[in-house]
Amino acid sequence: MYKNRSKKGMTDMSEFTLKTRLLAALEGKPVDKTPVCSVTQTGIVELMDEVGAPWPESHTSPELMAKLALANHELSGLEAVRVPYCLTVLVEAMGCEINMGTKNRQPSVTGHPYPKEIEGATIPADLLQRGRIPAVLEAIKIVREKVGPDVPIVGGMEGPITVASDLISVKSFMKWSIKKPELFEQALDLATEASIIYANAMVEAGADVIAIADPVASPDLMSPDSFKQYLQPRLQKFSANVNSVTILHICGNVNAVLDYMADCGFEGLSVEEKIGSVKKAKEIIGTRARLVGNISSPFTLLPGPVDKINAEAKQALADGIDVLAPGCGIAPMTPLENIKAMVAARDEYYA
């Protein structure tokens, strides 16, 4: 009978599966080569056409959602399957109004349930039965059945800070953070609780990694002091209560809060090219977290050319990136060839 050896006991590097390699890399353990995947959205129009799973239909149908996610893994070589394709699933279930977007534009929030008052707001008892949450959970199960146990599934979602801002509107979020701190904290606490429930439901359905994107936590919107005082404790609570490896993605130049991000308890920190030096970022976070990224989605992966993608990817690997990945969600019009080029660069680097 095959005995399950702990990852710590792994000495033969050829034993890695895609899943054990990604998890080991995120946990800071030695791996034979840096994994290459996307922890952010992976739906591209070329693949929607190829497999017949277009947006917006793929946002609501579990079968199409799974089909499109699998296509990027199978046809580009990305070493994980990531679902879903937007940051509106949880907030819709919590009462936000959503525009479902188009074939090349992601869903977006158009209405907020608590723009004036959060007092008395609660998490719906049937949260996991609402909106598109059942479709996402079903899609994860379909993917797991298709890929088997050895391919990692990344469950993506909006982070608690962004959930809070969507529930009350970004305008109220900014205002309350200064003028009504008690309401601001209530919104953050409600959002954090809901996020944990949804994240753990994805883990139960079969996700190996939960990757949250929290654009509203960016220094572009919230000051580093606010991050430290209000946002960090909620992110710490989230990572401590989710039953899987977790990744925190924050958009923009996060150098001003990178040190605080490293104390949030996430195994991985996903960053854009805007941080500049991977080496310097690694020095700041030390052994507290691993760095994921940071190939530019809009300026490298989308326009190419392949040579530029190749050079940028190899540079990130040379600088010590722990998981090679797009720095943000893959733009829907990105050619499949360009994603393949990122994977090929990793393969050449280790050839």
What features would you describe in this structure?
- With 351 residues, this protein is α/β, with parallel strands linked by helices.
- It has a single domain, classed as TIM Barrel, CATH 3.20.20.
- It has 15 helices and nine strands.
- It has helices spanning 18-26, 45-51, 57-60, 62-76, 89-93, 133-147, 160-168, 170-179, 181-205, 224-241, 258-262, 278-285, 297-301, 306-318, 336-350, and strands at 81-83, 97-99, 108-111, 153-158, 209-213, 245-249, 268-271, 290-295, 323-326.
- It has a seven-stranded parallel beta sheet, with helices on both faces. The protein has a two-stranded antiparallel ribbon with strand order 2-3.
- α8 (170-179) packs across α9.
- The protein is globular.
- Residues 1-11 have low confidence and may be disordered.
